[in-house]
Amino acid sequence: MTYLVHSSDVFKETELKKLDNGTFHCLPFNDNIGSLPTLFSQDGIFNHEANSYLFYLKAIKRAKDLSPCAQALQAYYQFLEDKNLSWDHFPPVKRLKPTYIFRSHLLKQIKQGKLAHSTASVRMNQIVNYYKWLMHEGYLTIKNEREAPLKMEFVSIQNTGALAHLSPTFTVETSDLRIKVPKDASSKNIRPLTPLSREALDTLTRFLPKASEELRLQILISIDTGLRIREVATLTLSALDTATPLAESRHRNELFVSPQSNGVQTKFAKERHVEISSELLAVLSEYSTSERRLKRVKKLEAKLDNLCDVALTLKQEAVDALERCDRHEPLFISEQGNPVSEKSIEARWTELRQRIKEDDASFLYRFHDLRSTYGTYRLNDLLEANLPVVECMELLMGWMGHRDESTTWKYLRFLKRKEAFKVKFGILDSIMHEALGGDDE
Fold first, then answer.
1. The CATH number of the domain where 410 resides is what?
2. Tell me: the pLDDT tens digits for 79-88?
3. For the residues of 50-99, what is the DSSP string, one character each?
4. FRET label pair with 91: which of 39, 231, 339, 367, CA 20 to 30 Å apart?
């Protein structure tokens, strides 16, 4: 078994001191880079090459999230261990090289439904980058081309961006180990966009009073802002304080979300601005000072005060979450005084969905579909306002935090195929008003 262990703080500079009993002790000195994932073999042996690469990514390249790389390396070394293969032995025949055998293994897992195309593609790309680094740093010496772990290629890609008419194609460097992800969003390999229909939104609104106050607000935040589930879970009071009214609308505001500035754990650690309705913002502000929440804050503060004493008994993930809470107070806290996680939100959503399914068997939506609901309705509203398509795409891409414009274009293609979803964003505002009890005032 290949083990992946998350260390405590790692320092780039240390000082070696000799103790009175003749032993040596390494003390941290300067430049703390935080927690670092570390690989160990089944015998507890430190994986020098892989861990040097992870240290390089964190300390030199300043990588924000090492999880994809660490998980890929763990899967690869576990595979090598299971197959009794060596990471640095590459026979001249392709089918006998560990990298190509691993690629075949990933393709088999895709075929068996155990792995998504996108996950397999990311893992293979991470391993390719790892071997390129190994060769560059001299960990792996290649005497001739036949003994190389991979073969580099140049591929021509069709340009689907706004300037495609000027540059129809562009060339990228890749390798023959790449795993292609199907482009057809309606294929069985990639789950298509499934925004909630008007009927599904009405059904959800009817059942929201049966959810806890926290889940109800989390659902409304996702629908109203398009925040991802982890971003909703880690929303902080500091982020709410950044709210500024939009000049274009007196009903909507803009929030700034950033892991560095206000603790919201965005994907790829990307800073961005998101929309939020004035009505929901007022309700969240009221909730933040409610007696219900303040009781939970006291429990969280007690955990933070005791963190140094119990840190060694907690998983590193839990310690990191609590330390973030110490810097930026989270909006959502569990009844036990813990920062809410995406897993706990997903669990509560699954429970609510099960109750809804007893009334409407067709309600099979994921929490993530609330995000695509925002994106679909919001994009149509922008198009209905006769804004240029490219400008609509840029606005939505910024609000939703898409790294690749092709992800945003999926929403436009969806709208072209589904005329039934060409409904104004104002419908979401009316549903929001009803869900927040506006009719009772």
1. 1.10.443.10
2. 999 999 999 9
3. HHHHHHHHHHTS--S--HHHHHHHHHHHHHHHHHT--TT---SSGGGSHH
4. 39
